Amino acid sequence: MSKHASPDESGDESVTLETGLEALRSSPEFRGPAERIEDHDHANDHFALIYESQAEQFAAAVPFIRQGLERNERCLYITHHNTRTAVLAAMRDGGIDVDAALESGQLSIHDEDETYLRNGTFDAEETLDFLGGAIEEATEEGPYDALRVTGEMSGVLREDPEGEELIRCEAKANYLFDEVDGIALCQYDRRRFPSEVIRDVISTHPLLIHDDRVSHNVYYTPPEEFFGPEKSAHEVDRLMGTLRDQTDAKVALQQRERFLRESHRITSDADREFEGKLESLLELTCDWLDLDAGGLTHLPSRDDRFRNEFAVGYGGGNAGADTGAGTDTGADADTNGNGDDVLWTDPGEGCYCRAVLAADEPVGMADVRGTDWEDDPIHRDQGLACYLGTKVTDGTRPYGTLWVGAREPRDREFSATERTFLELVGEWISYEIERRHRERALEESNERLEQFAYAASHDLQEPLRMVTSYLQLLENRYGDAFDADGEEFLAFAVDGAERMREMIDALLTYSRIETRGDPFEPVELDTVLDDVLEDLQLQLEETDAEVTIADLPRVEGDRSQLRQVFQNLVDNAITYTDGPPRVHVDAERRRNEWVISVTDDGIGIEPDDQERVFTIFDRLYSREEYDGTGIGLALCQRIVERHGGDIWVNSEPGEGSTFSLTLPAAAESEA
């Protein structure tokens, strides 16, 4: 099979550089990184393994052979300082069925006399002839899909060949394995070879395995440059090029870190609105990528066209309906109810924003010339010749795209780092859009709830007042005519109407927690509890209750609503008890919030009922046992949640209850 051959019947592709890396990635013996190497010219390569211990040697060589056997490749191992027995033992330890592989002929072990030194001396051409013949025998004349060779190169030291002859052989082998379906791993023991030979080995291998790592060799030198009279000049060029590349990489890294810091500063600025952050992020991205414009598009259901919600460049733009001024890319301008321009785009299938929505990763086109995108109306009408976009969602479905581009083609493709940066910005925008949708849905829900509460307080109150009035009229005019049962029935009806009125009023109060609350401000809880105890003074005296209060903090909140919370909690503590109530209110600081606790010695709550007590109108006791509407604790929970806190209860039946809630600490006042 050639390097362009079709996959074999097992589904494996021809042997390539990537298959060699995959062997190391999946190996329990090899513990170092074996990352994908981009922009590599050779389809099939041979590696150089530079090691300093037998463990390091076998950690790469054993998985290399094991993968070849699994892929139906002919595998050769050339020994020298390790005995055949040691090599086979290492293979067995690595999970290879050595006996079956040897018996079938798929695996063979050779020494240097059969390979490198067939004629008693090392000769580069003869070695390459041997490898070429082995590849041909394994693939064209045999039942195997490729040849895989690994050898202990220290065998050549026995004849002490000239270093240049050895390196010339290694350099030529790069091209031997690039042209046929074979792969090789040359093993160099750093303890045995002179440093100058190791240096040249590094120079002539595009891929190195060392220190449990695989490296794309920046010091690799093509043979035509390594040999010949211009060797020194080429070496100077390479050294300077390496220094230039390292400097450029360092500058690029610093630049990327600067842009990441700046993007974090923008998104975390609590004083800026979403539109201002979006504008700054787009300008930052265009600056980094050296592009002209960017924007956020939305794909609503209308006409299957994209709406430009925001744009920078090409004259600029702003958020809302009047966005992307000057960026109407091949689409018509519409107007909204306020008369503002609404700009729409309609890219073709597979182009620009539509390509982004169909992909899971950012889509980029550095130069649309000569591609299908060149016929797209966005390019024809606006000349957008360079584009990078990423998908934006609203949490459950695609919302639109975040894009940047330019009218001039880019001289290089978009890098993985650049794509990732835009994708991160897009993820932040998706989060913000989802959050705003949730807030809008909550506002709409609250509006509907308030509308219902309004109907309850007016439309339902009116017939209820009529029922109550007629019941009272009936009692006043005909009360003497009723017998004992009639009077009892009438009392039940009046009481039921009154309780319904109380429940409707409570429901109205519950529904208006969010919409009718006061703005938050620093609140002294000590004064709030003083007011609560004053309101409950008569009840405290009648029950002989004792209420103790620790030093309470200042919190951030709605004073009126917090008073409702503590009045409900203290009232419940006094009510749900079999003896003189004993109530204690305490506070504990927890980072940026306070935990306030109201503890009583009352009747307690069963464990299964401790969640139910916060459910609206879900009463644990009958009205004959304890009076009330059954909404008090639900009201407390809704108020505490409005303050960004939680409320819960810890209780044991017969041993009292502790209701705890968290409230945000007020900001420290300046001295």
UniProtKB/TrEMBL annotation:
Keywords: Kinase, Phosphoprotein, Transferase. PROSITE patterns: HIS_KIN. It is an enzyme of class 2 (transferase). It catalyses: ATP + protein L-histidine = ADP + protein N-phospho-L-histidine. This is histidine kinase. It comes from Natronorubrum halalkaliphilum. Residues 455-667 form the Histidine kinase domain. InterPro entries: GAF-like_dom_sf (IPR029016), HATPase_C_sf (IPR036890), HATPase_dom (IPR003594), His_kinase_dom (IPR005467), HisK_dim/P_dom (IPR003661), HisK_dim/P_sf (IPR036097), MEDS_domain (IPR025847), P-loop_NTPase (IPR027417). Pfam families: HATPase_c, HisKA, MEDS.
